[in-house]
Write a structure and sequence with these properties.
This protein has 419 residues and is α/β, with parallel strands linked by helices. 32% of the residues lie in helices and 24% in strands. It has two domains: 174 residues, Flavin prenyltransferase-like (Rossmann fold), CATH 3.40.50; 216 residues, CoaB-like (Rossmann fold). The strands form five sheets. An eight-stranded mixed β-sheet has the order 12-11-8-13-16-17-18-19, sandwiched between helices. The chain has a five-stranded parallel β-sheet with strand order 2-1-3-4-5, sandwiched between helices. The protein has a two-stranded antiparallel ribbon with strand order 6-7. β6 and β7 form a beta hairpin. Bound molecules: flavin mononucleotide (FMN). Flavin mononucleotide (FMN) binds next to α5.
């Protein structure tokens, strides 16, 4: 398996006239951190919401907006731009631009590129929820999806108009991770044909019908790992505890609540998996009994009796024929020492150690890590979780083939959808 330097991914980022355009400098930053070259193409309406000056500064490239700009066309014509793109992303995508793309109209530079490109196209719609639910917009969405255009989101929540509903643009981190994973088919395909099971997020261990024990895990690292693995051509099943993240494109997501459910879902899929990546922050203990009704406050103190949750990681590595297993160790102190102990005790192939605290780790968009394996280690400095995940997946592939041999046959080439 060759392990070359990462090739930059060329992203044409179309920005259209929605309020969410104010989030695009952040989106550009995250795409660039993920290794992308970003060429921005703005519509005239987009210029009402965000300045080309700011976007030029963060993208490091002159902004394109006018189809009839002779100087810019001489430098890189709209056709060259369409060919240059590995992916065309429109974020935010207005209802109007969706309609233009559906009809094949090309009155401006952005829609002309959409018609002229062979690269995958992704749209992150953003609009008022009534606009999004309008039958015309929904019919356009359906047609776009039928034609293979990826629709990212939208999310549900409070909107700029003061109302609540579906129509919020997904957050820049989620969009960047999804878009970078779309380029995987063009990437090195380091995990092509392999099946991965990834666990992510926290678990909820019920106390009574309204309360549970949990932790601060946001699931971001696991989702980034799943996206990065899919980008390298893997078939990925992501078993996720309760999180507030959009499903990464090209990844089968199985949602669970408790450690017991995560254990069952993992074992449902692990039998023919080549690689298991356990990023989930699974509860160590759960209440012995779960009250049927809400527990009332009667006394000044209260004792909860807890019992150990199933150890998912150890249960996988003790299988007769375990997959290549990567654990994560989030520690507040003696990070490397504890992680090395876990590597050996749980018989892992690799462990990713990172410190968690108020200033790092959980619930953040960036992370740093040291990866340990038998006779080796590698440290990754602080980077966005998408960027770190890409590097960790490359290292996982490298170690997988080092341990299992470069001629390793995937255990499975087709994933059947579970029922
Ligand atoms: C203040 C303001 C906010 C707007 N926000 C949105 C929006 O969030 N989503 C949307 O689809 N259209 C929105 N519109 C309407 C679009 O800007 C309008 O349809 C425009 O023609 C879109 O052009 P474009 O797709 O070429 O950028 C907004 C208009 C105004 C005046």
């Amino acid at each position: 398996m060759p392990f070359s330097e990462t090739i930059a991914v060329n992203v044409v980022l179309g920005i259209t006239g929605g309020i969410a355009a104010y989030k695009t400098p952040d989106l550009v930053r995250r795409l660039r951190e993920g290794g992308a070259e970003v060429q921005i193409v703005m519509t005239a309406s987009a210029e009402e919401f965000v300045t080309g000056t700011a976007l030029q500064a963060v993208s490091g490239r002159p902004i394109r907006s006018n189809l009839w700009d002779k100087e810019a066309e001489a430098a890189m014509s709209h056709i060259e731009l369409a060919r240059w793109a590995d992916v065309v992303l429109i974020a935010p995508a207005t209802a109007e631009v969706m309609a233009r793309i559906v009809s094949g109209a090309a009155p401006d530079l952005l829609t002309t590129i959409c018609l002229a490109t062979e690269a995958p196209i992704a749209l992150a719609p953003a609009m008022n929820h009534v606009m999004w639910n309008n039958p015309a917009t929904q019919a356009n969405r359906e047609l776009l999806e039928e034609r293979g255009i990826q629709i990212l989101g939208p999310g549900v929540g409070s909107q700029a108009c003061g109302e609540t509903g579906a129509g919020r643009m997904l957050d820049p981190e989620t969009i960047a991770a999804a878009v970078l994973s779309l380029t995987g088919s063009r990437g090195e395909g380091l995990l092509k044909g392999l099946k991965l099971v990834v666990t992510a997020g926290p678990t909820h261990e019920p106390i009574d019908p309204v309360r549970y024990i949990t932790n601060h895990s946001s699931g971001k690292m696991g989702f980034a790992m799943a996206s990065a693995a899919a980008a390298q051509g893997a078939n990925v099943i992501l078993v996720s505890g309760p999180v507030r993240l959009a499903d990464p494109p090209g990844v089968e997501v199985v949602q669970v609540e408790s450690a017991k459910e995560m254990y069952a879902a993992t074992h449902k899929f692990i039998g023919d998996a080549d690689i298991f990546i356990a990023t989930a922050a699974v509860a160590d203990y759960r209440p012995v009994t779960v009250a049927d009704q809400k527990i009332k406050k009667k006394s000044a103190t209260m004792n909860l009796e807890l019992e150990r949750c199933p150890d998912i990681l150890a249960s996988v590595t003790s299988l007769e024929s375990p997959p290549f297993t990567v654990g994560f160790a989030a520690e507040t102190e003696r990070v490397i020492e504890y992680a090395r102990g876990k590597l050996q005790k749980k018989n892992l192939d690799m462990i990713v150690a990172n410190r968690v605290g108020s200033d790092c780790g959980f619930n953040r968009d960036d992370n740093a890590a040291t990866v340990l394996w038998n006779n080796g280690e590698k440290t990754f400095p602080i980077a966005s979780k998408a960027c770190l995940a890409r590097d960790l997946i490359e290292l996982t592939a490298e170690r997988f083939y080092a341990v299992r041999g470069s001629g390793t046959q995937p255990r499975l080439t087709i994933i059947s959808n579970s029922d």
